[in-house]
Amino acid sequence: MKKFLKIAIVSLLILLIGCTKAENEKKYVVGFSQFTSNDDWRKSMNQSMKIEANFHDNMKLLILDGKGSIDKQIADVEELINKKVDVLLISPIAPKPLKASINKAIEAGIPVIILDRNIEDVNYNSFIGVNNYEVGLNAAEYIVSLKKKAKIVEIKSWAGTVPTIQKSLGFNEAVEKNNDLTIVGTTQDSYNGSGIKKHFKQILEENDGVDFVFAHTDALALQAYEVAKELGLTDQIKFIGVGGVNSPNGGINLVERKILEATVFYPTGGKEAINIAMKIINKENVGKNYALPSLIIDADNVDVLKRGLELISSQELDIEKQQSKINDQLQLYSSQRDFLKYTLLFLGLIGLLLFLTLRAKQTLSKQKKLLEELIDKIANQKTEIEEIAENLRVTNEATNNFFTGVSHDFKTPLSLILSSTESLLSKGEEKKPEEFGLIYNNSKRLLRMINQLLDFRRVESKKFRLKAAKTNIYSFVKSIFSDFKNEAEKNKIDFSLTTNTNEAELYIDRDLLDNVLFNLLSNAFKFTPIKGKVSINIDEADEGIFISVKDSGIGIVAAEKDKIFNQFFLGSNNKQTSSGIGLYLAKQYAKLHGGSLEVFSTEGKGAEFKIYIPKGKAHFKPEEIIVGDEINTSETIDLNAFTFEENEETVPDENKESLLIIEDNTDLRGFLKSKLSETYNVYESDGIDAVNKAIEIIPDIIISDVNLPEKNGFEICEALRNDIRTSHIPTIILTALTSDAAHLQGLKSGVDMFLTKPFNLSVLNQSLKTLLYNRKRLQHFYKQSFSIEENRDKKEIRSKKDKQKDVESEFFKTINNIVQKSLDDSTFTVEILAEELKISRVQLYRKTKAVLGINISDYIQNIRLEKSKELLQDKELTIADVAYSTGFSSPNYFSTSFKNKYGKSPNQYKKDKK
Length: 914
Description:
Elements: H1 2-23, E1 28-34, H2 40-53, E2 59-65, H3 70-82, E3 87-91, H4 95-107, E4 112-115, E5 126-130, H5 132-146, E6 150-156, H6 162-177, E7 181-188, H7 197-206, E8 212-215, H8 218-231, E9 238-243, H9 251-256, E10 262-265, H10 270-281, E11 289-292, E12 295-298, H11 302-346, H12 351-425, H13 433-461, E13 469-472, H14 473-483, H15 485-490, E14 494-499, E15 505-508, H16 510-527, E16 533-540, E17 544-551, H17 582-592, E18 596-601, E19 607-614, E20 657-662, H18 666-676, E21 680-685, H19 690-697, E22 701-704, H20 713-721, E23 731-735, H21 740-748, E24 753-756, H22 761-785, E25 786-788, E26 797-799, H23 807-821, H24 830-837, H25 841-852, H26 856-871, H27 879-885, H28 891-902, H29 906-913
Parallel strand pairs: 1-2, 1-3, 3-4, 4-5, 5-11, 6-7, 6-8, 8-9, 9-10, 14-16, 20-21, 20-22, 22-23, 23-24
Antiparallel strand pairs: 10-12, 13-15, 16-17, 17-19, 18-19, 25-26
Helix pairs in contact: 1-11, 2-10, 3-4, 5-6, 7-8, 12-13, 16-17
Pfam families: HATPase_c (PF02518), HisKA (PF00512), HTH_18 (PF12833), Peripla_BP_4 (PF13407), Response_reg (PF00072)
Organism: Tenacibaculum adriaticum
Signal peptide: 1-22
């Protein structure tokens, strides 16, 4: 028993020593001097430091706020030096005043890390910050990408700081290199907190047509926006800030609310500072400079970034809660340990109790271990579930995109087939070869898409069998080249075929390689602009043949080159709907031939796809070799003979109403024009110039597809609705989309009617007639809605229905006000009115005719004559006085106009009123 007690006492002493050692484990103090915590960006820096520091049990973070005062920050640094912190972090308000304090810290052996604002001639350990020159450069390049010519105002941050100098330098150098950009004004934030509003307002008042404002912080950008809002210039000026903090008034939220056009994301570096401090504490080597990346956040990526940041913020909050719980548990554990220690001291000589206590501890340790294993298991399961959920989300999104693309690709040719068939079956309709051609062409297109889907299934199930025949590769490629000549001519594309061999022969499955080349050429023409270039080159090498398809189109985003051959993948710069399996199948077909398919591309400079097929037949199985004749082109049907040719420019017929067709499918556009030209003056657009063309011609009605290059049909409709020149034009949407969400989006964008493909031509015709009839009914309403308000002191012209605040009412109310101000001016003309409205004379004429049913000259004269009736009741005014007061050049002209309008002369009207 004594031996046991001795062992127990020794064990107790060892345990106590171990506990004391654990209790006394050193905590490293990292001190941070923050010059201010007033703005969201600085608060975000502090928060990221706190979160990261929580991950290090042996670290204590001490943050001192300088409150924007250099004297306070110097005192804070001195305080941290006196506390002998293990690592000193400083975000300086200004470099020079802090040099002495920083050197003092270094001499005291305290490692120093500088954040955000670099300090020269100081031997600090590391600097962490964004390349401010690059920030300014990125902002300028973003402006260039939005608008070729622009007037810019730059709003700088505090004078003399390195970020301000570097941002301005990068921005100004980029602007100076571009002759289309002009900085018309510059202002700077002040240290005294007075802001930039007064000086910025002066700049806007002195400079007309400012397009962009580049502010060095999001807060300054918001101040500038508020000034512009006071002046009513927010629709004209786009604002770009710096920061990108996800807070109520942070850059991300301002971009999302469309207050800012964009913000340059400016990482705080708080997390990185803690990690580098930990490396210094652990005696690890660290770099001198750590450059943080910046990027542009605009409407294209703000939603994704905001959701990501909100998710991170949510996870960080969860981590803080878990950390708090862990600290509570540790505190509880520490209390229990202390209690156990004193209990063991009190009962240390009682061996039995010591034994029981040790056994209890062993049991507790086992339970703790089981608990830890259970926690690890739950964490692993959670990770697996999250991965599965993400994979399901990606798969679901890809599948939805695939079926949307397939639906669009199927329904457009079906529309042409059904509409052409309907036309051919109509009584008295002459059967036209081009309509048979449309049916034939689009039937072949549908067959090709169906075969592609079947091939996709066979490739996926690995049940594909090749039928390789010996083929003259030049003749084979040339036949496919011929199929695309007409497409090249229509789009004025330089289309060429070159080769270094005319006799080379390969064993190929002709159908599969035809699909490969057809897919590559279709993509090349789809993404190559008018007057671009597409080329095919055949190059014979020792071991095989290289066939390359090269274009001058939009190219491929560098980060996506490795993904474009994945099934269902759609490039981020691809604005057109597609199935996403074409390139995947093309690569699989090349592999089945023992070859390869590679891509070479620079974004914005086109792409080149290179197919390699080895010579010989050793790479095929014996059953895959067939005996086949060379390609026979003599019996092929010339599909181009049955397509709709590009028509000459429409010659307007004044007795017809005008129709603009916006559709990127040439066949469908040509078919609709051929069927509707007898009734309407038909104009066409492939979608690229749709808005400009609509503004140019001011059509009576518009038919538009949804899936179009650059802008979709909903965006085009919304743009026209928001433009006073085109807001009155009714729009019909023709699309393959059938979902409620698509209909809802169309209604929100101002679509008047929604027809789904395949559509009935008779229904389309009736829809056009109905919308135009409804517009004529509106003409009568608007003609009655504007008259002279009588018995008012001001006697101004206004709408009878003041409560109706639609665009057209406001437009004509503006016209009435302008005419009223110039009522006695006989030199006032339609041209002057159009200039004041900032639209062309033709656009004013067409809009007035479309909305009111009368021309603008008659409308102005009606206002003058209505006013003259009121003046004729004044006994003291002569006929001449009334004529000149209402803007008529002579009393005779006034009398003639008055009699033509009211059936009696002014004299007779004056007598009747007596």
